[in-house]
Amino acid sequence: MLKNVDLSREVAKAEYKRLKGDAELKLADLQRQVKALGIPVIVVFEGWSASGKGTLINQLILPLDPRGFTVYSASGPTEEERFYPFLWRFWKRTPTRGRLAIFDRSWNRRVVTGRVEGHVKGKQLHQAFEDIRSFERQLTDDGVVIVKCFLHISKHEQKQRFGALRENAATAWRVTEADLRQNQQYGEYLAAAEDMLTETDTEYAPWTVVEAHDRRFATLKVFATVIDALERGVAFAGRKADEPRASPIQPVPPINAFKTTALDHVDVSLSLTAEEYAERLKEAQTRLRELEHQIYRQRMPVVIAYEGWDAAGKGGNIRRLTQNLDPRGYEVVPIAAPNDIEKAHHYLWRFWAQLPKAGHIAIFDRTWYGRVLVERVEGFCTEEQWRRAYREINAMEQQLVHFGTVLLKFWLHIDPDEQLRRFRERQEDVHKQWKITDEDWRNRAKLDQYRDAVEEMLYRTSTPYAPWTIVESNCKWYARVKVLETVCEAIRQRLR
Is the whole model's pTM more than 0.85, yes or no? Predict the structure, then answer.
């Protein structure tokens, strides 16, 4: 992709002024359309040191309303950011609908600079490419327009520009030792950049190589690339806006009346005596407290996800899980309906923001699976969106596991009779009435629809790297001990 690029291309000054003026007016108009249609936009600048990224970004933003964009300079991760999956810091910076995020270097730095410097190689490199493609697809599937420009200059041109910068006392500081090493190892960086462009050039987020020897030519090409992408995004959003909102998904009668499901085989009669419960609970809690110290020392992140039927006992289960832990080492994340800010992002954005840093535990009381459960059944998202979510969720969980996260997912299962008994108990107990709402009763009325959604969720998102554990929860004592012992065993296995 780079070796055959003609770097001699240039534009005359008069022609440049005429074309740039037209492009600026067009870009400003498109920014207003993007805002009106609620289209999030990401513009990525990658390329060689001294290829002019800063200058071109400045040219690009001059005609824009500064209230509608943010520029991020993505150098190496900070000490804090190293405690999270490498895409965490970029997820946090994805734009809200109608805004532009412009990145001076990006997530692609990991597979170029990190590779040449020896920090990312072998299996890690393969996983990083996988994660990048998945990340970009998740965003574009959600309506984000991604524009990626790679600024290309030759080794000789780079050396000359470094020389000019170093001769001037006001700019000499801009040339670092890392920059000089890049020029000395130009061939290695070129090979890594070629691989990066090949591995991450997709139909949903293609690369544009910008010949950057002549700054006028490079500026016009960047403008043309961004304008073309925004025009296509606006046209697509305009078509989507005419589509009617999807109605709630209706239950589909089974083709085979004799089909079996995962939940059919759950033995909810499993239970413990009071003595067994007290003994095993104390033992598991003590063991988990010891493991909490070990995961902190080894900087291992742990994510524990709870889903289950209403009144299945998630709250009490979480309390026993955390009862003996150091509160500085874990956080319980309760998930409710998304607020306006969260709705303005990709639906996974708010979960990425709550991930634990390495050495800590995050416990999610309900999770990202809301997209394929309540949002599916209640019609809060389209069928296309919830069907796509299975792939997106699997990809997110794979990225967490690639980072070394211990990921546990629990479905707390009770039968309908037990749920009804608990609902009535809550209604009759003045101290528990706050636990039962009209929404609980509405959900129970749609039990068959929810069960179909749960079955498909378990089937499509139980993977080798992030399997579901179904917890028999008619007996709360049994459920609490099973979760605790499962968490302890999973962490112990990873610490080996």
Answer: yes
| CA–CA distances in Å: residue 389 to residues 141, 237, 363 | 10, 20, 21
Closest by alpha carbon to 407, among 485, 288, 306? 306
CATH fold for domain 263-495: Rossmann fold (3.40.50)
Q: What is the DSSP letter of 314?
A: H
Q: How many residues does the chain have?
A: 496
pLDDT digit string (tens) for 250-293? 444 443 444 557 898 899 999 999 999 999 999 999 999 999 99
CA distances from 227 to 52, 241, 299, 433, 448 (A): 20, 21, 44, 57, 48
CB neighbours of 116 closer than 8 A, spacing ≥ 6? 185, 188, 189, 192
Stretch(es) of the chain classified as CATH 3.40.50.300: 13-241, 263-495
Question: What are the angstrom distances between the C-alpha of 27 and each of 21, 59, 72, 101, 237?
Answer: 10, 12, 20, 15, 17
pLDDT single digits (tens) 32-50:
999 999 999 999 999 999 9
Spatial distance between the Cα atoms of 227 and 145, rounded to a whole number of angstroms: 11
Which among 281, 213, 216, 175 has a CA at the least distance from the CA of 8?
213
- CATH code that applies to domain 13-241: 3.40.50.300
Distance CA 413, CA 311 (A): 10
DSSP-derived secondary structure letter, 6:
-
Return the structure tokens found at 224: 């043309």
Under 8 Å between Cβ of 331 and 361: yes
